[in-house]
Amino acid sequence: MATTFRLFHFASPARFYTLAARWSPALWVLAAALAIVALYVGFFVAPTDATQGDAYRIIFIHVPAAWMSMVLYLAMAAWAAIGWALNARLASMFARAIAPTGAMFTFLALWTGALWGRPTWGTWWVWDARLTSELILLFLYLGYLALVDAIDDTRRADRAGALLAIVGSVNVPIIYFSVKWWNTLHQGASLTLSSAPTMAQSMLLAMLLMTLAFWAYAFAVVFKRTQAIVAERERHAQWLTTARKMEAA
Fold first, then answer.
1. Rounded to an integer, what distance in angstroms lies between the CA atom of residue 33 and that of residue 203?
2. Distance in angstroms between the alpha carbons of the first and the last residue of the chain
3. How remote is the C-alpha of 183 from its chain's centroid?
4. Beta bridge partners of 39
5. How far is CA 131 from CA 20, 24, 113, 120, 235, in A?
6. Which of 30, 34, 99, 129 has its CA 20 to 30 A from that of 218?
7. Which CATH class for the 22-45+55-238 domain?
8. Residue 64 region, left (φ>0) first, then alpha (ψ -120 to 50), else beta?
């Protein structure tokens, strides 16, 4: 019983608002510090690639962004489903807060992929299975955002958004396995659980540090955005006035 209470202690928007205000500044600092170290290792410590030269270094931003685009979509769909199934208001707010960040990482993955593809493939874009499915992921994020904003009733909007997010989650495994299922121009996975890394340790370190930086950034911005959504939906609640006074103090 005590364990269950701890798990749901911050399910209340009021408690979460206080938690987010407390942790967000530390997450911003952590994200900045990790990103600086990752960029230094990636651009000044990691060796030059034998075939691609220095153009490969965009991998230190492209791959973590692509990972985040998929993971955040699944997180958005999961929170939306929980909000729909359990009528959990905070879960639906989380889903809404995740969507813009996920869309940003998806755009970043597509943009850096184009920058990498130009010197490597000789073109900015090809209708490759992975690139196309990643583009569809961006449209799913944008579709979710447009749908929930188009419906004035927040409960109806949350349910409609949850349905779209859940159905769209089918696209995530397609992105991941596309290079195995089809003959694509895109290279295979940079890291797999079934085999040891083939890249230099400094390359791997830079990529993992940037991934942690993106995670810290995602938590920070999602916490802050969820705070804003809570403040909008609970704007008449007495606890919000007290929490804002404590935050400003």
1. 18
2. 35
3. 27
4. none
5. 35, 33, 8, 15, 42
6. 129
7. mainly alpha
8. alpha
Taking a C-beta distance cutoff of 8 angstroms, is the pair 38, 206 a contact? yes
Distance from chain centroid for Cα 44: 27
- Residue among 214, 215, 187 at smallest CA distance from 199: 187
The DSSP 8-state label assigned to residue 114 in this structure reads H
pLDDT, tens digit, 9 for 90 and up, residues 37-46: 999 999 999 8
pTM score of the predicted model: 0.85
Q: Check whether 6 has a pLDDT greater than 60.
A: no
pLDDT at 85 over 70: yes
Sign of CA dihedral 235, 156, 148, 164: positive
∠ Cα 28 83 242 (to 5°): 55
Give me the sign of the Cα torsion angle 72, 75, 79, 84. positive
Of the ranges 10-19, 79-88, 124-133, the best mean pLDDT one: 79-88
∠ CA 128-133-135, rounded to 5°: 95
Query: For residue 32, with 0-12 CB atoms within 10 Å meaning exposed, 13-18 middle and 19 or more buried, which class applies?
Result: middle
49 φ/ψ angles, rounded to the nearest 5 degrees: -70, 140
The token pair that represents 191 in the structure block: 């890291």
Q: Rounded to an integer, what distance in angstroms lies between the CA atom of residue 137 and that of residue 95?
A: 15
